[in-house]
Design a protein that fits this description.
By secondary structure, the chain is of the alpha+beta class. The protein contains 2 helices and 4 strands. The chain is globular, with a radius of gyration of 12 Å.
């Protein structure tokens, strides 16, 4: 499973959790899994099905906008 860190401003939508686990081989798959489990988070982060422009996604500290975007591959120990 991949660890997804939740920033403080979004923690109230996930019951205060700082981190959640999700399954997937790409950023998009991990987000889809996370959103299925946390629909309130999906409403805040991707209200129209696409990530809001103010959302930044990092894999192991690297911004996915400079890799393969939502198609960036994810390993089971990645954050």
């Amino acid at each position: 499973m991949t660890t997804v860190r939740i920033p403080p401003v979004l923690r109230e939508t996930v019951g205060g959790a700082r981190e959640l686990s999700a399954i997937g081989g790409t950023v998009r798959e991990v987000l889809d899994d996370l959103f299925a489990a946390q629909p309130g988070l999906a409403a805040r982060v991707a209200p129209d099905g696409e990530l809001s422009s103010f959302i930044n996604v990092y894999v192991n500290g690297r911004d996915v906008r400079y890799t393969d975007g939502l198609l960036t591959e994810i390993g089971p120990s990645d954050t």
